[in-house]
Amino acid sequence: MKKTLITAFALSASLAYAQQKETDRFQQYQPIWENGTLAQKDSLASVLLSEVKTYKTEAEYRTTLNLLHALGHEDQMASIEAVAKKKFPKGSLTRDAYLHEVYYKLETTSEKEKAYRELLKKWPATKFPGDELTYDYAIATLAGSYAKDGNASKATSYLSEMKERFWRGNGYLPVAQTLLAAGDTSSATPILKTVLDDAYYYITLPEEEKDNKARFASMGYAGSMSTYVNILVNQGKYTEALGLIEKALQIAPEQGDALSNVYYKSLMATGRKLEAYNILTKLYTKGQFNVEPDLKAVYADLNGSMQGYEGFNARLKEDLVKSIQDHIKEMATFKIAPAFELLNLKGEKVSLASLKGKVVVLDFWATWCQPCIRSFPGMQAAQAEYANDKDVQFLFINTWERDKEYKKNVVSFIEKNNYPFEVLYDDQKDAVTGQVMAAKYGVEGIPAKFIIDKEGNIRYFLTGSSPNVDYIKMEMKELIESAKKPYKG
């Protein structure tokens, strides 16, 4: 037994050293793959390709594949990957290819379960110490499939196999939400409680112990709390719900916005109407107009009638517009927008030059980007408002896709959701720098939106998103109308 433990430790230490060495090699070339010229990138790619025959470890192959991707030489990756997979048939590259090319594309739960067992048979998790997250992703996918089938027992059983506590909430929460949507509250509740307890554990760690994993896990606290408290609210357990919310606000006050909806409902139900009123007015002045029925009810209770409500409501909307106007000042910039000519879903060329004389809204997004997708209903509403304005053009720039069949996936996504968007593929590389359009615009994270004026100047740049349709619609209106006006410096 002792010998086995020593061997396992040595393997783990050896892998950790190899991974660190390759991470260092990747970072060594960062100036080139990030800011180098096309000639420099091509030169580095040639050097890497000439070195491949000397590689002795899978880590070396993986680093070179990552570098070729960063350099924009994806067309040369397949042959190298094929050599690596043949040389290391039981290695992580072959395993990852199996997951992405087979496992994640299966549709039925029975197929996924069979493929998962094959995964564990060919590539046991014990052979890849420190790589538990890869297996947790696979487990979460299978558990989610069982939840959609209504098999809560199997879904819960597979969830229990997950190893990475900091990440498992990402597998647990979707399963719980699926079960809740199907009306299975009894199965969903303990799953949510686990997510909540995990997030609470990481959020309450001493500051000196909080690493990136802890910060990541803490981010799920408001979401799991909101879902869990919603169950209590729906069950009429308002006092219990209030206790949990106020405990959450004590240890994580920064997550107050995410808990606002369940908080005001609990306050209303327990008779604390003035506090509920204060939260409701804040939500309304952030563009959450869907709370207006509750706002009216509390207003009437506190004032004894609806007298004066219309004026009150108008002032709230004025405050919202003023808040948005102040906010967009922080996004203001002024620089010439890089030129582009990209293909749309029909294969037609669309260039920035052809749109001169229009205000152009660019929205960089990807099919895997959930914040991008959450903002789409709001962007659709904003586009609809300008449907008859020939001086405004919305363009949705699809970028950073990870799948080889990205074009097919993009078309499917747009058609499935019936979005009336003009989508352009960001896959044309600059002849000098080798950069795609997102890089030329300085995009470091998506969603990213640019408002370009009629003369071709970037007037506003914003990142992040909101699921709030009304707020996005109002914010876009302020940005577009401001960009229509001459720049004053």
Helix content: 55-70%
In the predicted model, the low-confidence regions spanning at least 5 consecutive residues are: 1-17
Large-scale geometry: globular
CATH architecture of the domain at 332-484: 3-Layer(aba) Sandwich
Task: Please provide the ordered H/E string of secondary-structure elements.
Answer: HHHHHHHHHHHHHHHHHHEEEEHEHEHEEH
Keywords: Signal, TPR repeat
Protein name: Redoxin domain-containing protein
TPR repeats: 222-255
Pfam family, one: AhpC-TSA
Can you describe this structure?
- TPR repeats lie at residues 222-255.
- InterPro entries: AhpC/TSA, Thioredoxin-like_sf, Thioredoxin_domain, Thioredoxin_ResA/DsbE_sf, TPR-like_helical_dom_sf, TPR_rpt.
- The chain is globular and about 85 Å long.
- The protein is built from 22 helices and 8 strands.
- Mean pLDDT is 89; it is low at 1-17.
- It has helices at 2-28, 30-35, 38-51, 58-71, 77-87, 92-101, 109-122, 132-148, 152-159, 169-181, 185-203, 212-218, 221-234, 238-251, 256-269, 273-284, 292-303, 309-329, 370-385, 406-417, 437-440, 469-484, and strands at 332-336, 341-344, 349-351, 359-365, 392-398, 423-425, 448-452, 457-463.
- Strand 2 (341-344) and strand 3 (349-351) form a beta hairpin.
- The protein is α+β, with helices and mostly antiparallel strands.
- The chain is 60% helix and 8% strand.
- Among the domains are: 2-88; 332-484, Glutaredoxin.
